[in-house]
Design goal:
Blueprint lengths: L4 H15 L2 E2 L5 E4 L10 E4 L12 E3 L5 E2 L2 H8 L44 E2 L4 H5 L4 H6 L3 E2 L10 E8 L2 E9 L3 H14 L32 E5 L2 H10 L8 E5 L7 H9 L4 E4 L6 H12 L3 E5 L13 H10 L1 E2 L1 H10 L1
Parallel strand pairs: 10-11, 10-12, 12-13
Antiparallel strand pairs: 1-2, 2-3, 3-4, 4-5, 6-7, 8-9, 13-14
Helix pairs in contact: 8-10
InterPro entries: DnaG_primase (IPR050219), TOPRIM_DnaG_bac (IPR034151)
Organism: Bacteroides faecis
GO biological process, one term: DNA replication, synthesis of primer
């Protein structure tokens, strides 16, 4: 027997009080401390609409793996069978075990990060000739940490180094060589013929997997930041923050996933901050990657896609007027975006 809307709302209120739970950003799950292992923030109860793979009041802990697949099972698990309102479906029926994410048995979201040391002799800078060519302003240097080793560390000569900060800790870094890709390719071509030192365009940290990291994550304020713009790289984040004047805008922030895809850990991290709306801002030439990532995000957030009209331009190349036009007139739902790209 299906629960009525009033019964469902009653159960959600009671579970929220019983477990001291709070809804995630999309309002589809209650997040609480696990009654089994006691891990904070890893236990979820699905409260969205029933789908092929999900049923209301299924629950799962991403730390210890404990799951329940029915309302009755959930209430027994938390010790509140008195809240049972109506009989559930056959308890022997096979149901999916997914809640926030489709996990294999025994799998859990691993968002643990270790603190990373920056390269030796790293010093923060507030002016740099290469960053000047990338449009950096005084506000950018104040808002985003960036530095170099000032020629004192051979491995990082001619690199600018961006720390990746998560909840105040340095958990990684991206080092970008100041030469252009063409210059690096020409140098490496000569090196292959004559021998010598090959230059890497990027020399990044290796301690924490980048699928666990989001650049500018600390700009997403828990319970405050409603909307985020997801981009591919650091310079996209800097450009959008400058051109959309997001420095002091706590309701919206730009983050980078370090490429044209998003991991379940990155989704979980955004969801845990209470984000409700995601604007997917990958480069205009990444049509298939945008479609795939939008589908992955759509289960957890309200998703819009920034449809950049010129596929050759990224956020650095676009003017403020062009960006304003995209946000005013070219934000597409995933369905609209698919239809438009079929027609083009």
């Amino acid at each position: 027997m299906a629960l009525s809307q009033s019964d469902t709302e009653f159960l959600i209120r009671e579970l929220t009080k019983e477990l001291d739970a709070k809804p995630d950003g999309a309002g589809k799950n209650l997040i609480a401390r696990c009654p089994c292992c006691g891990k904070e923030g890893k236990y979820g109860i699905y409260i969205g609409k029933q789908t092929v793979r999900k049923k209301p009041f299924m629950s799962h802990c991403f730390s210890c793996g404990r799951s329940t697949y029915s309302l009755e099972g959930l209430l027994d698990f938390i010790g509140r069978p008195d809240l049972m309102i109506a009989p559930t479906t056959d308890l022997n029926a096979k149901l999916g075990t997914t809640l926030l994410f489709p996990l294999e048995e025994g799998e859990e979201i691993d968002d643990a990060l270790g603190i990373v040391e920056l390269p030796e002799f790293y010093r923060r800078c507030f002016t740099h000739p290469y960053l000047k060519t990338r449009g950096f302003t005084y506000d950018d240097y104040e808002y985003f940490q960036v530095g170099s080793t000032r020629g004192l560390n051979f491995r990082y000569d001619d690199y600018v180094i961006f720390p990746i900060i998560d909840r105040g800790d340095i958990v990684g870094y991206v080092s970008r060589h100041t030469w252009s890709k063409d210059e690096i390719d020409r140098h490496n071509s000569r090196v292959r013929r004559k021998g010598g030192y090959r230059i890497l365009r990027f020399r990044n940290s290796t301690e924490n997997d980048f699928v666990k990291l989001l650049y500018n994550y600390d700009a997403v304020k828990e319970g405050v930041t409603d909307t985020i713009i997801i981009t591919e790289g650091i310079f996209d984040v800097v450009a959008l923050t400058r051109k959309k004047e997001l420095y002091d805008n706590e309701s919206m922030a730009a983050v980078a996933t370090f490429g044209k895809k998003i991991s379940r850990t990155q989704i979980y991290k955004l969801q845990s901050k209470g984000v409700k709306t995601v604007i997917l801002g990958y480069d205009g030439d990444a049509v298939e990657a945008i479609k795939k990532t939008a589908d992955e995000l759509n289960a957890y957030f309200r998703v819009l896609i920034a449809d950049i009209p010129d596929a050759k331009k990224d956020w650095e190349d676009l003017s403020c007027d062009e960006i304003d036009d995209i946000f005013s007139h070219r934000l597409r739902t995933p369905a609209e975006y698919r239809l438009l790209k079929v027609q083009e």
